[in-house]
Amino acid sequence: MHIPDGFIPLWQCAIYYVILIIALYFAGKWAKANLDEKRIPLLAVLAAGIFAIMSMNMPIPFGTSGHMVGGALVAIVFMAPEAAVLVFTAVLLIQALFFGDGGITALGANVFNMAIVGGCVGLYTYKGLNGIIGKYPSIFLGAWLATLVAAVVCALEMAIAGTFPLSVGVASMALYHAFIGLIEGVLTVIVIFALEKYRPDLLAWNRE
Questions:
Q1: Which end of the chain is more exposed for a tag (fewer CB within 10 A), N or C?
Q2: From residue 137, how far is each of 14, 29, 68, 75, 156 by CA, in Å?
Q3: Are 143 and 188 in contact (CB under 8 A)?
Q4: Cβ–Cβ < 8 Å for 189, 136
Q5: Predicted pLDDT of residue 145
Q6: Phi, psi (5° rounding) for residue 64?
Q7: Tens of pLDDT along 44-65?
Q8: Which residues contact 116 (CB under 8 A, 6 or more apart)?
Q9: C-alpha torsion angle, residues 166, 170, 172, 176 (rounded to 10)
């Protein structure tokens, strides 16, 4: 799902960077109001875990990759997509600069897909379904859907840029990530279950 340099024209990259700057502004305001000495280490631990799971790439035709994401996990744990924006901006920047995974020019697009789209889809799917099907099924579906939708949005962006065939590209990304999302859903449930059992004070819904 990482978009490399050169896959999106610079003028389109600039649009995604504007979105990123706006998102970082609101994420900074959220961090100032909500992060404390207990929750900053949790954010760092989740960032390290996300760095690890995103490093396990599955090649996808036409030059991109499939992998677990973690946007839903961060957004649900903190009940804020702003937390995902902070985590993914840092993680994706490090990956692009030092590991050649994703591009600097495409950083805005990659953060948009994985943090903003993934975080919002995961969090609001959880919120919408929690009262209907229960906490953990809604967490699972939120994480699965976040991975799938973020991948499809990524494919659409590259199709608009002219570097990815629309129908085959979207189908490939959707198929791979529909499977990957199942694994991500299970891992998201496991992590949140463990936090709720051993450190419930760190979960946002226990602090409201």
A1: C
A2: 38, 31, 18, 16, 28
A3: yes
A4: yes
A5: 96
A6: -110, -165
A7: 999 999 888 877 766 666 556 5
A8: 19, 23, 81, 84, 85
A9: 160
Query: In the prediction, which pLDDT does 66 show?
Result: 65
For the entire predicted model, the pTM comes to 0.92
Q: Please report the pLDDT score of residue 150 as a whole number.
A: 94
Asked whether the beta carbons of 39 and 129 are under 8 A apart, the reply is no
pLDDT attached to residue 141 = 97
Give the CATH fold of the 10-206 domain. Answer: Arp2/3 complex 21 kDa subunit ARPC3 (1.10.1760)
13, two tokens: 């990259």
The maximal CA–CA distance of the chain, rounded, in angstroms, is 48
3-class DSSP assignment, residue 80:
coil
In one-letter notation, the amino acid at residue 54 is: M
Query: Which structure tokens are listed for 95?
Result: 């990956």
Low-confidence ranges of the chain (pLDDT < 70): 57-66, 206-208
List, in sequence order, every residue forming a beta bridge with 66; answer none if it has no partner.
58
What is the domain partition of the chain in residue ranges?
Answer: 10-206
pLDDT of residue 69: 85
Cα 80 to Cα 89: distance, rounded to the nearest angstrom: 15
Give me the amino acid identity at 202: L
Write down the pLDDT at residue 25.
97
pLDDT of 111: 97
Three-state SS for 64?
Answer: strand
